[in-house]
C-alpha cells in the first residue's frame, strides 16, 4: 500500500494550513482541533485513529514511545520531526513523503525530518515491530 491509500488523523499540533493542503490533494482528514478533542491524551487519540482506520500525523515524539515502549495498537504514524511550526515546511515535508511514494505495510511509522539542505525520510514497516 501507499500513503495515498489511507485516510488521515491529524493531531492538535498540526497546522490548519497542512490540513487544508492534505484535503486539497485528495486525502480524507479527521482533525483533532476541528473535532474539539484538544487536550485528549495521546493514547486516546492513537486508539481513536486506529478505530477509525486512519494514519496518525503528528509533531509529537511521544507517539514513538506509545508505539515502541507501550506497544499500543496502531495502523500508522507519520512523525514530522522538524522542530518547526511553519506550515510551509510541513507541507514541503509531507509532499516529499508523497513524492517518495514508499510501499507501506501496516503497522508502519514514517519519520520525516526537514533540515536546511534536505528532507530525510525513514520508514519502519510491519516486520520491524
Could you please describe the fold and organization of this structure?
The protein is α/β, with parallel strands linked by helices. It has one domain (3-128): 3-Layer(aba) Sandwich (Rossmann fold). Helix content is 31%, strand content 23%. The protein has helices at 16-24, 42-51, 62-68, 87-100; strands at residues 7-10, 29-31, 54-58, 76-80, 108-114, 119-124. The chain has a six-stranded mixed beta sheet, sandwiched between helices. α1 links the parallel β1 and β2 (29-31). α1 packs parallel to α4 (87-100).
Largest sheet: 6 strands, mixed
List SSEs in N-to-C order: EHEHEHEHEE
Name the average pLDDT.
Answer: 90
Strand order of the largest sheet: 2-1-3-4-5-6
The count of DSSP E runs of length 2 or more, i.e. the number of strands, is 6
Helix fraction?
Answer: 25-40%
CATH fold-type name: Rossmann fold
Number of helices: 4
Estimated structural class: alpha/beta
Number of domains: 1
Head-to-tail CA distance between termini: 17 Å
Work out the radius of gyration.
13 Å
Percentage of residues in DSSP E strands: 15-25%
- Overall, the morphology is globular
Uncertain residue segments: none
Give the second-level CATH assignment, the architecture. Answer: 3-Layer(aba) Sandwich
Name of the level-1 CATH class: Alpha Beta
Supply database-style keywords.
alpha/beta, 4 helices, 129 residues, single chain
Task: Kindly summarize this structure in a few lines.
The protein is an alpha/beta fold. The protein has a single domain (about 5-129), classed as Rossmann fold. The protein has 4 helices and 6 strands.
